[in-house]
Amino acid sequence: MTQGPAPSLPRHLAIIMDGNGRWAQQRRRPRLIGHRAGARAVNRTIDFCLERGIASLTLFAFSSENWGRPAEEVEGLMKLFLNALDREVDELHRRGVRVRFIGERERFSAGIVSRMQLAEQRTAGNTAMTLSIAASYGGRLDIVHATRELAREVAAGRLRPEDIDEAMIGQRVALSDLPPPDLFIRTGGDIRISNFLLWQLAYTELWFTDILWPDFTAGVLQQALDDYARRERRFGLTSAQIAAAAAETRSP
Ligand code: IPE
Ligand code: IPE
Ligand code: MG
Known about the structure:
This protein has a single domain (4-250), classed as Decaprenyl diphosphate synthase-like (Undecaprenyl pyrophosphate synthetase, 3-Layer(aba) Sandwich). The chain is 45% helix and 14% strand. It contains 8 helices and 6 strands; from the N terminus they run βααβαβαβααββαα.
């Protein structure tokens, strides 16, 4: 089975929003000012994706490793999350966005956890776009959780180790109900994955920019989408096979 050529618009876009701290440092301001400016870039990005009809947007907001930052920065980020949850959910709901969180929710304060739950419950029936926020998320831990679940099945005698396949792991990692990301964007100039969606990114098109996250605009996103539309996704096959499959789907 061939997957065919890339549809010109990604169905699922995943973004590492990096560079808030450097943006602030360039202005000789505290890092938190950068995170605040980053929150405005989040709103712009959601607007753009809704307008363009991108069905799923996944944003890396806070990694499992980010807990190790100075207490002052972590506390400031938590306040920012709390404010954002209080301020933005009504509007997201009004616009038909389904909001979900992936990651170790239990590490957040009760106030944040209850607001996350409320946001998810309120917006569960929305269909305009699925917005997944990765918060205290780590790709390796995601795979560990899936593995534990399968190990429990084996221990209970319901599953044989030799029957474990890629689909079973894929069904147990985060975002299993969505197509894997078609396009990954990282701002901030670093060319790495930083423990984001390791399993889910296996065949994702990767796109990197030096632009710092608070400076991310519709124009930059459009540039990423244009580059994406020009790429040939081969999924291990040859160009000729991909062209033949595309011709087949075009013919009646
Ligand atoms: C990304 O920006 C936001 C979070 C990790 C919470 P950074 O805070 O990592 O910004 P830089 O990379 O230090 O510039
Ligand atoms: C990745 O950025 C995590 C988020 C954007 C939330 P980091 O700034 O934590 O990544 P590293 O440390 O540069 O790899
Ligand atoms: Mg960073």
